[in-house]
Specification:
Length: 73
């Protein structure tokens, strides 16, 4: 996300608990993906987890975009 969006999200998160939760989840997903991507080999279960996290992260990002879009200038 660009810095303007990050600032907008930070401001809106103070008043919007749904947005705050989506951002918290997004950051958790990023951390877990970093952990999985740092492994030299993924088990089939870990690979499936990585795919599920990527899908959830993308879906969350779409929801975040829907929330912040009307507030952009």
């Amino acid at each position: 996300m660009d810095p303007q969006d990050e600032n907008l999200i930070a401001r809106l998160s103070e008043r919007n608990p749904e947005l705050k939760k989506l951002m918290d989840d997004h950051l958790d997903f990023e951390r877990r993906l970093d952990e999985l991507n740092s492994l030299s080999y993924l088990t089939p279960l870990e690979d499936q987890e990585r795919k599920n996290i990527q899908k959830a992260k993308l879906a969350g990002k779409d929801l975040i975009e829907l929330i912040i879009a009307p507030h952009r200038q």
